[in-house]
Write a structure and sequence with these properties.
179 residues; mainly alpha
Length: 179
């Protein structure tokens, strides 16, 4: 397929210049491409290559992205517990480099996985963390996603007043940032 050909070309170019971060990125996208076409073994193969190459780069941010990529693949194929485990690794690495954007993203993804397995209290905690990290960097998109997910958790808990509170706060955030 065309996407795979371009991704392989990108991989070859990053190998030629020995850029391990770009190689890891290419492996991540190859893995996602195979995931989209329901080829689990190939997706896992390339996500593992992304992790191994990210380790060689020495960049904890790149390594966190590679683990997160594998978490997405596990979630896609219904292995939620493994997805959460990989995202915990991603979260830890993002904490070490103090990357609030990645912390917001991974916290939200862990919250979503926790919601899927009906750990609503944990889901709520991770969505709150995601909101806080997003607020620190004024990322209104991630703030809105966190608030929407918090409202959905309240709906699942049948706490409608709390759900409405989050939805109203979401509207205020969106209006404040003219989003």
């Amino acid at each position: 397929d065309v996407a795979e050909n371009y991704l392989r070309l990108s991989l070859e170019q990053s190998k030629a210049i020995r850029d391990f971060e770009k190689q890891s990125e290419s492996y991540r996208y190859l893995a996602l491409n195979f995931m989209q076409t329901n080829q689990k073994d190939s997706a896992m193969f390339y996500s593992t290559r992304a992790i191994n190459t990210a380790r060689r780069s020495g960049s904890k941010s790149t390594l966190s992205l590679a683990f997160n990529n594998q978490a997405l693949i596990y979630e896609f194929f219904g292995q939620i517990e493994l997805s959460v485990a990989k995202n915990f690794v991603s979260l830890k690495l993002a904490e070490e480099v103090r990357n609030n954007m990645l912390l917001a993203k991974y916290s939200r993804e862990i919250g979503y996985s926790q919601k899927l397995i009906l750990n609503l209290s944990d889901a709520e905690r991770y969505f709150r963390n995601s909101f806080e990290y997003s607020r620190r960097i004024s990322d209104r998109r991630q703030m809105a996603l966190a608030l929407t997910n918090l409202a959905n958790v309240q709906l699942d808990k049948k706490q409608l007043k709390q759900m409405v509170k989050y939805k109203n706060f979401l509207l205020k955030v969106l209006h404040l940032y003219q989003y």
